[in-house]
Amino acid sequence: MVKLGGHAFPLGLDAERLSGYMEVFKKIKEEGHRLVVVAGGGGVPRVYIDAARRLGANETLCDQIGIEGARLNARLLIAGLREDAYPNVPTNVQEIGAAFESGKIVVLGGLYPAQSTDAVAAMTSELIGASMLIKATDTDGIYTADPKRDPKAKKLDEISCSDLLRMSLREAAGAGEYALFDPVAIRIIERSRIPTWFIDGRKPENIARVVRGERLGTLVRASKT
Q1: How far apart, in whole angstroms, are the C-alpha atoms of residue 13 and residue 208?
Q2: How many CB atoms are closer than 10 A to CB 75?
Q3: In degrees to the nearest 10, what's the CA dihedral of 149, 154, 159, 162?
């Protein structure tokens, strides 16, 4: 399972850059892995969400805008993956299961209001029995603080789900504002004990490297019982 963060879908979409991800996804499939990708929202839905809030929309409606934006990104990936991808974007659990059985690369966007694409990735990982979840972000791992704001922040090689949950609960929780990792997603990977990697997704090849067993970024592990 790969969660491709919104950094891959800025306002000025770069088709050549996106093609790098698609080549990596195809390579992973060719190496014998079954793959599901969840596309994040990125720049376009955030613009629409901001405009909707200014017009007085509630958070549920803003969430729905974010869902549609992520699904649009998913369709873009499907277009680039061509015959390697399942042709439709699943919109519920039943459709995810049917798509996965096809053996093709399944690409999702959002599913339900008040649920981030992180939660979609975690839930789908549990549903299909994924061997790992990779969150491809615009940083090279999880830090003790926001490295963009705190120069003293230190990168962590590993972190437990319980510690990550404490960090995440300090973050914003509005539509399109799950800055670190959605608490719902953390609880799912905790109960399912899914090894989860936060990696620098700005380099598409990093995704393949983790699939092949390299240690990159930060490993999120289940808390000790």
Answers
A1: 23
A2: 17
A3: -50
CA 140 to centroid of chain Cα atoms: 15
Residue 85 DSSP symbol:
B
Give the pLDDT of residue 43.
87
- Report how far apart the first and last C-alpha atoms of the chain are (Å, whole number): 25
Give one word for 155, left, alpha or beta, with left for phi > 0 and alpha for psi -120 to 50: beta
Q: Report pLDDT digits (tens) over 78-114.
A: 999 999 999 999 999 999 999 999 999 999 999 988 8
Q: How many residues are present in the chain?
A: 225
Give DSSP secondary structure letters for 103-169.
-SBEEE---STT--HHHHHHHHHHHHT-S-EEEEESSSSEESS-TTT-TT--EESEEEHHHHHHHHT
> Against a cut of 0.85, is the pTM above it?
yes
> Residue 221 carries which DSSP code?
E
CA-to-CA distance for 161 and 158, rounded, in angstroms? 10
Angle, in degrees to the nearest 10, between helices 117-128 and 183-192: 20
Opening angle at CA 100, ends 5 and 96, nearest 5: 70
- Hey, how many other C-beta atoms are within 10 angstroms of the C-beta on 9? 24
Contact 51, 94 (CB under 8 A): no
